[in-house]
Task: inverse folding
């Protein structure tokens, strides 16, 4: 089934500047993997060495974080929209 | 270089002073294209989602807030071009913790808050190999 993946600004440079792309996949993990295979430069920004999504990236299906669903095994419907969202944190040095 | 509207700079300073002695945080919304360069026309303040006992030197933006920011920017024809936070009683220089948690491409604006008053404001971008931040020039624009 065909779904849409929305790409955050920080990763668009690795996907030919596109805001969103169409991808195929029955689960969130399959769709993300298919997307990454189309743009190899983006792969290292999405996946860590263990093959799991990096902590810098959160994945939403519709308006729900897939961590609150079934993670990468969450099943998709035709026309589903996945949004890749950066994880943002930081702070001053310890005093 | 990043251009910030003077209103955005003033709002970041105000947010930092209001949050003191804790850190404030939010997103920079605007455009980054070949014609105009990187321009942050407005900011999107959000709740510091880090644990309250550590907010004096830590900030986090929840995944849900990040999602909402992205969606809001898209609906208004803007892009998320970076993020800002304050350093209470510390210079506007990124920490190692900042570097470890940063993403390539975004601008990271830091405002120093000294004893409750806003001081220096700087902006930084992470190298593509994540090894270090490089400071970028901040140009203040007289537009809202």
Result:
């Amino acid at each position: 089934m065909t779904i849409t993946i929305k790409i955050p600004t920080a990763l668009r440079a690795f996907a030919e500047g596109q805001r969103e792309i169409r991808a195929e996949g029955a689960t969130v993990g399959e769709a993300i993997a298919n997307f990454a295979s189309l743009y190899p430069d983006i792969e290292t920004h999405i996946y860590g060495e263990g093959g799991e999504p990096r902590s810098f990236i959160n994945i939403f299906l519709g308006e729900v974080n897939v961590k609150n669903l079934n993670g990468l095994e969450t099943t998709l419907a035709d026309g589903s929209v996945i949004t890749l969202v950066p994880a943002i944190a930081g702070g001053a040095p310890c005093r | 270089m990043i251009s910030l509207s003077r209103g955005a700079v003033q709002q970041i300073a105000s947010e930092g002073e209001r949050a003191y002695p804790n850190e404030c945080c939010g997103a920079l919304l605007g455009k980054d294209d070949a014609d105009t360069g990187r321009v942050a026309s407005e900011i999107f303040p959000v709740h510091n989602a880090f644990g309250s006992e550590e907010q004096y030197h830590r900030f986090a933006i929840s995944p849900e807030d990040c999602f909402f920011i992205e969606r809001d920017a898209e609906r208004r024809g803007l892009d998320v071009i970076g993020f800002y936070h304050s350093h209470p009683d510390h210079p506007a220089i990124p920490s190692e913790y900042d570097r470890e948690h940063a993403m390539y491409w975004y601008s990271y604006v830091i405002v120093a808050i000294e004893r409750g008053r806003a001081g220096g404001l700087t902006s930084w971008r992470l190298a593509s190999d994540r090894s270090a931040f490089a400071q970028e020039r901040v140009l203040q624009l007289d537009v809202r």
